[in-house]
Amino acid sequence: MSKRRGFDIDFPGNADGVYTGAKRKETPEPAARPEGRRGPMAAAISENADALRQRAEAERAIREENDRLAHEHVRLKRAGLITDLIPLDAIRIEKLTRDRGPGPDPDIGELKDSIRAIGLSNPIQVEPSGDGYELVQGFRRLRAYRELYAETGDEAFAKIPAGLIATGAELEQLYRRMVDENLVRRDISFAEMAVLALRYAEDPGTSAEDLGSAIDVLFASAGRQKRSYIRHFGSLIEQVGDALQHPQAISRNLGLDLNKRLASEDGFEGRLREAMDGQGEVSPDYEVAVLQDLLKSAPKAPKPRAGTTRNAAAKTTLRCTVPAGTVRCAARDGKVELQMERDFSSIDRHRLEAAVAAFMSALDD
């Protein structure tokens, strides 16, 4: 028979051996966190807040930099210092009337040779307009590029360097930009300046009422004597400009003499038109020679009309607003001109005849 091994069980009890029950195991108190230490949740919230603050600060700095760059861009654009390569067919020349006529420019060849050799050193100036650009300065430079592209087909001439000016400049300021640039050209003629002043006065978008006020605005930086010469040439162009092919070739003295004879001699305008009529296409030198010969001829005695005193120099100009738009009127002895943005040749002949008759009838009432 095997002997069973025993073992002792130690029951807690008192000094007399009486069982008092098992001793309860006490849960230890949690250890105190070190000073300043946070729990995981609080740390995550704090880190997220710091990240949001840093992001907001970065966004604010970016907005301030963008605003600064935008203001600087506008400033440079207003000064015409933002330059880009603009396609030739995206540039229009409709907003401002140019002093250069559609005929050949004797100096354009030299400009084209210079562009071929060293490029364009002075960019043109354009104003963004719709889906394209409107030319402000650089008519001859643009013309040279267009001719070079047409002659060579070289894509290097398909785009022209252009300074971009801010949109919204006053029309008067745009004209002044163009005029001030032209005044530094030694070859610009008084006739070209007079034509520009006349077109400015005719433009409904300007405040000029007549040739004189247009000259005062456009050529404010010119001397008083020069403005006086432009007025004389303006009167000459108004009266016989349609009979001349090369008014830009007329010298200052020749223009002043012609204008004086037109104002003082009855019938001189008819003689001038007769001399120019039927000549066909002539050179500038030939036309100037004809005009000089005409001045050398003896003046004819005027034939005043009975009961009237003729004043060929007197002229009345006015502007009238009608439902169809703004009409500019220039009236002088024996001539009335009405100008507005309308194709009068499209009007039925009978309606036009009735309108003229009504106009004359109203004058006699």
UniProtKB/TrEMBL annotation:
Gene3D superfamilies: 3.90.1530.30
Region (Disordered), start-end ranges: 1-46
Top-level taxon: Bacteria
Gene Ontology CC terms, in alphabetical order: chromosome
Secretion signal span: none
Basic and acidic residues composition bias: residue spans: 23-38
Residue ranges occupied by any ParB-like N-terminal domain in the UniProt entry: 84-183
GO BP, sorted A to Z: chromosome segregation
Classification via InterPro entries: Chromosome_partition/occlusion, ParB/Sulfiredoxin_sf, ParB_N
Ranges in coiled-coil conformation: none
The protein's name: Replication protein, putative
Provenance organism: Salipiger bermudensis (strain DSM 26914 / JCM 13377 / KCTC 12554 / HTCC2601)
